[in-house]
Design a protein that fits this description.
This protein has 317 residues and is an alpha+beta fold. The protein is built from ten helices and 13 strands. Strands 1, 2, 5, 6, 7, 10, 11 and 12 form an eight-stranded antiparallel β-sheet that branches. Strands 3-9-8-13-4 form a five-stranded antiparallel β-sheet. Strand 8 and strand 9 form a beta hairpin. Helix 1 packs across helix 7. It is globular and about 55 Å long.
């Protein structure tokens, strides 16, 4: 259901900033247990080419009844004039009609490395030994020595509550605390005999300029995706991936982008064709000024979010 991890939109900026600082101070390594799983190492190698977005987002979109006739550049002006109200991490949503060759739109790509997420991915044995439930929140506070009002505690609580939340109609969801548990969830969706591969955004060239800039769509390649699973990094003491599958139609695209500052991004975009089951307060509706079910909602994936697809599907693309 979402983006740069839409789930971060519920968390204040200072909370995620503190969380990032905590991760950055920890040692970087890839657990040896991952090396036993070829699919795990494949995703690590792929995603280490990317950058990490672990920021919150909440913004006040301008609602309009004639949004379908508005060019995306109008929203660029809205971004400029309302920047003091908008977290830039929310500037990843767009309408399907905006996905046109040569079109321009503002997108925020933070300048961070991905390695922190995998450096803090626990082996299954260790992850399973730690309670992971909002009902165990106070126990976890004591275990990790967090005060109840600390930024880390608030981030941890919100992630636990999001993972405990019941899925919407047609959604199957799972919070993976290890690569092994993620693999198990993927088997329930795709079956044990289907070979799958991850697809993620990669940054070809980065400038030293603004992280938020206008990007021009240089190409559009739709990837057949009769079935897909999206995984998003969640703010937590160690790495947690929120993975989910939706029965409704979704479209996956590779979209090469070129920024005004010279940045080049091989972006992954997903368009959700049916949003009728989404909550009205979803940040995408605020940004785009649309209502649930009224229009497909698309978004670019940040580098630490990825889509699992059948290998045969990627070979046909």
């Amino acid at each position: 259901m979402c983006v740069y991890s839409m789930y971060f939109t519920k968390l204040p900026f200072k909370i995620i900033s503190a969380y990032i600082s905590t991760l950055s101070r920890r040692n970087s390594f890839i657990p040896k247990s991952l090396k036993r799983y070829p699919a795990s190492m494949e995703i690590v190698k792929l995603l280490l080419l990317c950058t990490l977005l672990i920021l919150p987002g909440h913004c006040n979109g301008t609602k309009s009844n004639d949004h379908k006739n508005a060019h995306v550049d109008i929203r660029i002006g809205q971004v400029d004039s309302h920047m003091h109200h908008m977290d830039p991490a929310a500037i990843v949503f767009f309408l399907l009609e905006d996905l046109k060759l040569g079109n321009t739109m503002p997108v925020y790509f933070p300048n961070r490395a991905l390695s922190d997420s995998f450096a803090n991915l626990l082996p299954k044995e260790e992850a399973d030994s730690i309670p992971f439930s909002s009902q165990q929140f106070h126990h976890l506070l004591h275990r990790f020595s967090f005060s109840p009002d600390s930024p880390q505690a608030v981030a941890m609580r919100d992630t636990l509550e999001e993972c405990d939340r019941k899925p919407i109609k047609g959604e199957t969801k799972f919070c993976a605390t290890s690569m092994e548990s993620m693999s198990g969830f993927l088997q329930t969706i795709f079956g044990s005999n289907t070979r799958i591969k991850p697809l993620s955004t990669t940054h070809i060239r980065r400038s030293d300029g603004a992280l938020l800039q206008k990007y021009t769509i240089m190409g559009i390649q739709q990837i057949p995706a009769p079935k897909m699973v999206s995984c998003h990094t969640m703010p937590y003491v160690y790495t947690v991936f929120y993975c989910h599958y939706q029965e409704s139609e979704n479209r996956v695209y590779r979209v090469p982008l070129k920024g005004d500052n010279g940045d080049e991004v091989e972006a992954v975009a997903v368009c959700h064709m049916d949003t009728s089951q989404w909550g009205r307060k979803h940040v995408a509706f605020e940004v785009l000024g649309v209502d649930p079910g009224s229009s497909p909602v698309c978004h670019f994936f940040p580098a630490d979010n990825f889509v699992w697809l059948p290998t045969a599907t990627l070979m046909k693309a």
